[in-house]
Amino acid sequence: MDNYPALIVVAPLLAALFSGIFSWVEERFTYPTALIGMGLSTFSAYKILMRVLDSGTIQYKMAGWLPPMGIEYRIDLLNAMVLMLISSIAFINLIASYRNVEQETNDRKGSFYTIYLLFVTGLIGVTATGDLFNLYVLIEITSLTSYAMVALADKDRGPLASLNYIFIGVIGASFYLLGVGYLYLKTGSLNMVDVAGILSGIEGSSTVLVAFILCMIGIWIKMALFPMHVWLPNAYSYAPVAFARVVAPLMTKVMVYVMIRLMVTVFGLEYIFNTLNLADAVVWLATIAIIAGGIMALSQKNLKKMLTYIIVCEIGYMVGGAWMGNQLGMSGAILHILNDALMTFALFLAVGNMVYKLKKVDFIHLQGLFGKMPWTMAAFVLAAFSIVGVPPTCGFFSKWYLVLGAFEAGAYHFAAALIISSLICAILFFKVFEICFFEPMSEGHGHGDGHGEVAIAEAPVSMLIASGLISISLIATGLFSGTIMNKLILPFLG
Amino acid sequence: METITSIKPLLAVLVSLLVIPILVSSSAKPNVRESWTFIAGTIKLLLVLSMLPIVLKGDQIVLTLFKLAPGADIAFRVDALGMLFALVASSLYIITSMYSIGYMRGLNEHGQTRFVSFFALAISATIGAAFSANLITLYLFYEILSLATYPLVTHHQDEKSRISGRRYLTFILGTSIGLVLPAMIYCYHATGTLEFAAGGIFTDQLSKPAATVLLLMFVLGFAKAGIMPVHSWLPAAMVAPTPVSALLHAVAVVKVGAFSIVRVISGIFGVEFLTSFNLGSVVALLASITIIVSSCIALTQDEFKRRLAYSTIGQLSYIILGLALLSPKGMTGGMLHIAMHAFGKITLFFCAGAIFVATGKKYLSQMVGIGKRMPFTMGAFFVGSLSIIGLPPTGGFISKWYLVLGTLEGDQLILLFVLLSSSLLNAAYFMPIFYRAFFCSQEESMFEDKIKEAPMMCVVPLVITAAISFVLFIVPQPFLDLAQLAVKGFIGG
Fold this sequence. Notes:
heterodimer; A: mainly alpha; two-stranded antiparallel ribbon; 21 helices; 2 strands; 2% strand; B: mainly alpha; 3-stranded mixed sheet; globular
């Protein structure tokens, strides 16, 4: 048996180590090291995905220790997909953000790459692991690295945003750890599959109920489900854009993955929807999250900030879908993990290009951007349409499944929230487009072929290519969402 | 009836899409760019024409592109109704492209490459909508068309176009996301398919109130059809350059709206289903109100294009009214009106644009005596307005004839009255324009007698479309055949 499940984590981890050393010795080497580490990781993710598609779930025992004592990596279709997503986004971003890193972190390039790699290692580990405590450790690795990253760029506001993030993040982690503690008390095991087997006998236990609720609250804080979202907007908008580009699409989505993993694999959907009586309340919470996220986004005057509130809104989509209690909702939520990660990545890639040229992305700085940065704007427009849910971009198709699921469950309020949020997103983005397209206002008719044309000042080609590719992939993912559904998601749900 | 699998519908959609990179890259050489537009347009028309004989034989051409979920694929199907619409749109696209050259160069407009590129995208989406095999594909192209036309509507990039653009999107995008999308997903939830089927997709899943709500969500949600009260984007969209108003807001965009409603009535609900619940009358009522009210508003408009816009709103409702009659003749008339109105109305818009290029005037009160200066333009205007009013010898007469027969067939005397009074109103808002253009005394005339027309590229297209309007009176085939074939399909003959 090959060791790709280990390599996928070890490669970025070792790369982090080396790039840490290089940042003292010879800073030039840190970037290639990071590139090699992430490249290997992406390659392993691809190999793993193909293996899982081919021959089903992979169980990999770390260092040969047998579960439930040893740590087991358990990779099925769901996390194979998420792993592929994480490693490829992190890899592509590494290429696209080279200039941004130079620009924003000036003398601390080495530290940036080291933390970046550790962060990605954490995310990959969280996704691959089959052990509840190991999961906690890895979540903390991603969180600690994020705290550091947020404080890295903006000297004025970064530290405060980071501190806020730390406080709330620690609370979230404590909740989760407490929940795992209760589970361990009751079952004496930390291996997910093992725990699930033991739990199936003791469904009425109040200890299990408490454990479940604690775990969920912990994860919801980490994923910024409204009203536990307050740390997110500042943290993500003051972080260096090169980091925001990975943390925004990945962090919250991986936490959604963790939630679904706990629901499906550990506690079991049977238990959650038949024994517990929480689903309705959570769907309502998700509904409120969607609307609240949208409304808060409406009041923003900065593009990055606006996007972070859209993330809060999108979290509501996935939580609501997962808690809908039917297969359509759950499959919609899983599809949206993929789609939302891609479209948020696409948006932040475009925003990164803008930041590179404009330094600031308050709305007033965006005037005339269609003329100045036509390619970046084209990529941005595509990504925005995906968020709004215009077919054939992928955002439409996950919304399709989510609304269908809501109809089937009779949760019309959730369906309405999805539609309203589409409308709000349309308003949000067209507000931006208007500024980029109409301002500075020309007087009367613009005449003459050359009239009013602004000189093009685009971002470097490497950034444009990444941005364009990801935006086009939104359409491809949308058109092949039937295949993704039939090959990955439905077989996983069984 | 046979079904043939062929890649032709996809090619017909893609050809204008694929030419866009070429258009952009040749932006420095306008003549090269324009010739590519013509090449793509001609290929598109030829592709559509090559499918015509197959469709006239009663066969269908199908192509499935992407499998999304059972009953909801991205797929094309070319049937009589789709062919009728595609034929109108692709033939008028070429004529409009010619006209655009005259208009845009005549006014020395900025951003011409952007203009032709989005125009190509818009026509691509239009053909896509025409050939859609199911509601989800139709919705996809409907949305692409909404978004592709936004930069065309707001072409001038000034404060006025910003406000109009906002209204345009609010109505078009707001209704399609807010009403059509949930209605469509509900249909899929209830029936498990979105395929357009001859007798509709519903069997007994819907109660009458639910069916009424769903139907209204579709009829108002496809706001491009301009049924009141979701019509006011159309007059606002008149800030666009005239070629846009001509092709998009008299033919492609608005007709996609009407076409979508026709599809929903015939393919989703089904004629029999609607008849059994007597839901046709609900739609007919909305359409009748729109027809009368918009014609009355048109009377009060002094800006040429706005008057045409209100006229368009009324005429679109003819199509809806024809379908809502749910009788064979009425539906034939409704669908025929897609074609007849297109050729008539585009002529009128071309005239408005030609006058603007030649004289800079856009208000009707400033056009007294214009006929002596621009006789070809105003002559064409006369033919076009006859067609809209529905008088022989123009194509508009034939579609109205069928509509009137349809009302008689169903004993709908009130609707007959609506149609006839609307024709009178149409005459009342068009004939004075023509009259004042030619018959005024020397003192009243605001122009010299010397003939000074707009550029050739503007005048030739409008003469062509006026001529076609006339020819359609004598030779209404193939449109009449297509409409009759389509109706035969609807009622399951």
